[in-house]
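pinging the channel bc i need a second pair of eyes. not urgent but kinda urgent?? the chain im working w is below, pasted from the shared doc
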Amino acid sequence: MCRGWSVEALVTVVITDDDSPMFQIPSTHLVERQAKMAGLPWIEVRTVGQTPHDLAALEQAFGSLDVDGFVSGALRSDYQKSRLERMAERLGMRSWTPLWHQSGHDHLKGMIDHGFEIMMTGVSAEGLTEKWLGHVLTPESFAELASLANTHRFHVEGEGGEYETLVIGGPHLEDRLMVDGTVHWDGVRGHYEIH
């Protein structure tokens, strides 16, 4: 949108199984509300989290849209980026990954500094405890997260699956999501179940 492009829809891959090496699972059901707050149509693509079914369903959905490309949030995963690029090539579309190889630290800090409200909805890295579940990052808590990432050697932006997030507010949204949930913690990892 900031580049003046016409954004036609938000597309979400909803995984029906328990895991996916390709797509996020927690809180994806809320993207529909984010799309409404951004004034955009929402397209849900339901699939199991297994290769090649995950991309086949997405490819079929894109095939029915009148668009010339798509934007993804891949930051470091060659697995994700290469599979999306091959799919785009098959469809004759462009795949754009504007965050590719940016500094995870600078990217996340920049989002917080520019008014994005980012809630942590899942944690699975050493150093991240149940206190982070349901927490909305602030400049102060980001500094603590960055210190923990340095100490425990995980990606501060969560790109390695160390944690999952949900944007509940930001400059691209007309409103903010009001969420309530329950913390589920097993002593090592956990998630924030949004009601």
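so The mean pLDDT is 91. and The two ends are 30 Å apart (CA to CA). — does that match what u expected or am i reading it wrong
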